Amino acid sequence: MASKFQKRLMGTIVLVSIGVIVLPDVLDGKKTHYKEGVASIPIKPELDSAVESFEIREPIEDPVSLPESPIEVVQESPQSPSTEVKDQVAVSKKEHPSQNAYVDSAWIIQLMALKNAENAKNVVKDLQKRGYQAHAKLENGFTRVIIGPDVSKSKLERQLVELDKITGSKGQLLKFKPLNP
Fold first, then answer.
1. Is position 99 within any domain?
2. SPOR domain: which residues (predicted)?
Protein backbone atom coordinates (compact mmCIF):
# COMPACT_ATOMS: atom_id res chain seq x y z
CA MET A 1 0.00 0.00 0.00
CA ALA A 2 0.98 3.46 -0.56
CA SER A 3 2.01 5.72 2.21
CA LYS A 4 0.29 8.97 3.09
CA PHE A 5 3.11 10.98 1.55
CA GLN A 6 2.78 9.21 -1.79
CA LYS A 7 -0.97 9.79 -1.80
CA ARG A 8 -0.55 13.46 -1.07
CA LEU A 9 2.12 13.75 -3.77
CA MET A 10 -0.13 12.08 -6.36
CA GLY A 11 -3.04 14.34 -5.38
CA THR A 12 -0.87 17.43 -5.75
CA ILE A 13 0.37 16.33 -9.18
CA VAL A 14 -3.21 15.68 -10.38
CA LEU A 15 -4.44 19.08 -9.13
CA VAL A 16 -1.50 20.98 -10.67
CA SER A 17 -1.89 19.21 -14.03
CA ILE A 18 -5.63 20.02 -14.08
CA GLY A 19 -4.80 23.62 -13.22
CA VAL A 20 -2.22 23.86 -16.01
CA ILE A 21 -4.34 22.15 -18.67
CA VAL A 22 -7.96 23.12 -17.96
CA LEU A 23 -7.93 26.43 -16.04
CA PRO A 24 -6.38 28.63 -18.80
CA ASP A 25 -9.14 27.58 -21.20
CA VAL A 26 -11.88 28.17 -18.58
CA LEU A 27 -10.59 31.52 -17.35
CA ASP A 28 -9.58 32.91 -20.77
CA GLY A 29 -13.07 34.00 -21.67
CA LYS A 30 -14.19 34.72 -25.21
CA LYS A 31 -11.32 34.23 -27.65
CA THR A 32 -10.86 36.58 -30.56
CA HIS A 33 -8.79 35.54 -33.52
CA TYR A 34 -7.26 38.09 -35.81
CA LYS A 35 -7.14 37.04 -39.41
CA GLU A 36 -5.50 39.22 -42.02
CA GLY A 37 -7.27 39.60 -45.30
CA VAL A 38 -5.33 37.86 -48.04
CA ALA A 39 -5.75 39.08 -51.58
CA SER A 40 -4.46 36.92 -54.38
CA ILE A 41 -2.77 38.40 -57.42
CA PRO A 42 -4.50 37.35 -60.62
CA ILE A 43 -2.39 35.39 -63.08
CA LYS A 44 -3.55 37.38 -66.10
CA PRO A 45 -5.30 40.68 -65.51
CA GLU A 46 -8.55 41.26 -67.31
CA LEU A 47 -8.15 44.09 -69.84
CA ASP A 48 -10.65 45.97 -71.93
CA SER A 49 -10.57 45.04 -75.59
CA ALA A 50 -10.00 48.71 -76.52
CA VAL A 51 -6.76 48.73 -74.59
CA GLU A 52 -5.42 45.61 -76.28
CA SER A 53 -5.89 46.83 -79.86
CA PHE A 54 -3.80 49.61 -81.35
CA GLU A 55 -3.36 51.22 -84.72
CA ILE A 56 -0.10 51.05 -86.67
CA ARG A 57 0.64 54.29 -88.44
CA GLU A 58 2.82 54.84 -91.47
CA PRO A 59 6.11 56.69 -90.83
CA ILE A 60 6.21 60.35 -91.74
CA GLU A 61 9.10 61.35 -93.97
CA ASP A 62 10.64 64.69 -93.10
CA PRO A 63 13.15 65.70 -95.78
CA VAL A 64 14.40 68.63 -93.72
CA SER A 65 15.73 66.41 -90.93
CA LEU A 66 17.63 64.04 -93.22
CA PRO A 67 21.42 64.58 -93.27
CA GLU A 68 23.13 65.75 -96.42
CA SER A 69 24.90 63.22 -98.57
CA PRO A 70 28.70 63.23 -98.10
CA ILE A 71 29.21 63.01 -101.89
CA GLU A 72 28.59 65.91 -104.25
CA VAL A 73 28.25 65.36 -108.00
CA VAL A 74 29.49 68.13 -110.32
CA GLN A 75 28.92 67.96 -114.09
CA GLU A 76 31.42 69.59 -116.44
CA SER A 77 30.81 70.46 -120.08
CA PRO A 78 32.99 68.87 -122.78
CA GLN A 79 36.04 70.87 -123.90
CA SER A 80 35.68 70.71 -127.69
CA PRO A 81 32.42 70.70 -129.62
CA SER A 82 33.80 68.32 -132.29
CA THR A 83 34.27 65.37 -129.96
CA GLU A 84 31.43 63.16 -128.95
CA VAL A 85 29.32 64.68 -126.23
CA LYS A 86 29.84 62.70 -123.09
CA ASP A 87 29.24 64.23 -119.73
CA GLN A 88 32.17 63.98 -117.42
CA VAL A 89 31.30 63.59 -113.79
CA ALA A 90 33.70 64.70 -111.08
CA VAL A 91 33.05 63.39 -107.63
CA SER A 92 34.30 65.27 -104.61
CA LYS A 93 33.95 64.11 -101.05
CA LYS A 94 33.22 66.40 -98.16
CA GLU A 95 35.81 66.27 -95.46
CA HIS A 96 34.64 64.90 -92.14
CA PRO A 97 36.40 65.68 -88.90
CA SER A 98 38.96 63.07 -88.10
CA GLN A 99 38.22 60.65 -85.32
CA ASN A 100 41.56 61.60 -83.79
CA ALA A 101 40.58 65.28 -83.62
CA TYR A 102 39.26 64.72 -80.09
CA VAL A 103 42.36 63.05 -78.66
CA ASP A 104 43.55 66.15 -76.79
CA SER A 105 40.10 67.23 -75.70
CA ALA A 106 40.13 65.84 -72.11
CA TRP A 107 42.53 65.61 -69.17
CA ILE A 108 42.94 63.43 -66.08
CA ILE A 109 44.97 63.60 -62.89
CA GLN A 110 46.90 60.49 -61.94
CA LEU A 111 47.09 61.08 -58.22
CA MET A 112 48.94 57.98 -57.06
CA ALA A 113 49.65 54.33 -57.80
CA LEU A 114 49.31 51.96 -54.85
CA LYS A 115 50.32 48.32 -54.50
CA ASN A 116 47.44 47.60 -52.09
CA ALA A 117 44.15 47.74 -54.02
CA GLU A 118 42.06 48.05 -50.84
CA ASN A 119 43.92 51.21 -49.80
CA ALA A 120 43.40 52.66 -53.28
CA LYS A 121 39.66 51.95 -53.10
CA ASN A 122 39.47 53.66 -49.70
CA VAL A 123 41.22 56.74 -51.10
CA VAL A 124 38.79 56.78 -54.06
CA LYS A 125 35.77 56.52 -51.73
CA ASP A 126 37.09 59.37 -49.59
CA LEU A 127 37.69 61.58 -52.64
CA GLN A 128 34.24 60.78 -54.05
CA LYS A 129 32.67 61.81 -50.73
CA ARG A 130 34.51 65.13 -51.07
CA GLY A 131 32.99 65.67 -54.53
CA TYR A 132 35.85 64.61 -56.80
CA GLN A 133 35.32 62.40 -59.85
CA ALA A 134 37.73 59.71 -58.61
CA HIS A 135 38.32 56.25 -60.06
CA ALA A 136 40.65 53.31 -59.41
CA LYS A 137 42.27 51.37 -62.26
CA LEU A 138 44.30 48.17 -61.86
CA GLU A 139 47.37 48.15 -64.09
CA ASN A 140 50.55 46.02 -63.92
CA GLY A 141 50.02 45.01 -60.28
CA PHE A 142 49.41 48.60 -59.15
CA THR A 143 46.11 50.37 -58.61
CA ARG A 144 46.12 53.89 -60.03
CA VAL A 145 43.95 56.56 -58.41
CA ILE A 146 42.64 58.82 -61.19
CA ILE A 147 40.64 62.07 -61.03
CA GLY A 148 38.62 63.01 -64.10
CA PRO A 149 38.34 63.04 -67.07
CA ASP A 150 37.50 66.70 -67.57
CA VAL A 151 37.74 68.99 -70.60
CA SER A 152 38.93 71.92 -68.48
CA LYS A 153 42.68 71.69 -67.95
CA SER A 154 42.70 74.76 -65.69
CA LYS A 155 40.05 73.22 -63.41
CA LEU A 156 42.17 70.10 -62.95
CA GLU A 157 45.28 72.23 -62.32
CA ARG A 158 43.43 73.97 -59.46
CA GLN A 159 42.35 70.56 -58.14
CA LEU A 160 45.99 69.42 -58.11
CA VAL A 161 46.74 71.95 -55.35
CA GLU A 162 43.67 70.91 -53.33
CA LEU A 163 44.46 67.20 -53.74
CA ASP A 164 48.03 67.78 -52.56
CA LYS A 165 46.63 69.27 -49.33
CA ILE A 166 44.13 66.44 -48.85
CA THR A 167 46.30 63.41 -49.69
CA GLY A 168 49.83 64.75 -49.46
CA SER A 169 50.51 63.35 -52.91
CA LYS A 170 51.52 65.40 -55.92
CA GLY A 171 49.52 64.21 -58.89
CA GLN A 172 50.33 64.31 -62.60
CA LEU A 173 48.17 66.02 -65.20
CA LEU A 174 47.87 63.70 -68.21
CA LYS A 175 45.96 63.68 -71.49
CA PHE A 176 42.92 61.43 -71.39
CA LYS A 177 42.94 58.60 -73.91
CA PRO A 178 39.44 57.10 -74.09
CA LEU A 179 40.58 53.81 -75.59
CA ASN A 180 43.39 53.39 -73.07
CA PRO A 181 42.64 55.52 -70.01
1. no
2. 101-176
Task: Starting at the earlier edge strand, list the strands of the sheet with 134-139.
Answer: 134-139, 142-150, 107-114, 172-175
Which domain CATH number covers 157?
3.30.70.1070
Nearest to 137 by CA among 148, 126, 153: 148
Does a structural domain hold residue 36?
no
The single-letter code of the amino acid at 158 is R
Compute CA distances 128 → 3, 15, 46, 94, 147, whole Å: 85, 72, 49, 44, 10
Query: pTM higher than 0.85, yes or no?
Result: no
Burial 105-135 (b: 16+ CB within 10 A, else e): ebbbbebbbbeeeeebeebbeebeeeebebb
Residue type, 9: L
Q: Containing domain of residue 116, as a range?
A: 107-175
Q: Tens digit of pLDDT for each residue in 55-101?
A: 777 777 666 555 555 545 555 555 544 444 444 544 444 554 444 55
> What are the pLDDT digits (tens) for 136-169?
988 888 999 999 888 888 888 888 888 888 888 8
Q: Taking CA 39 as the corner, what is the angle to CA 37 and CA 40, rounded to the nearest 5 degrees?
A: 150
Looking at the structure of the chain, the number of domains it has is: 1
Question: Residue 74's beta-bridge partner residues?
Answer: 90
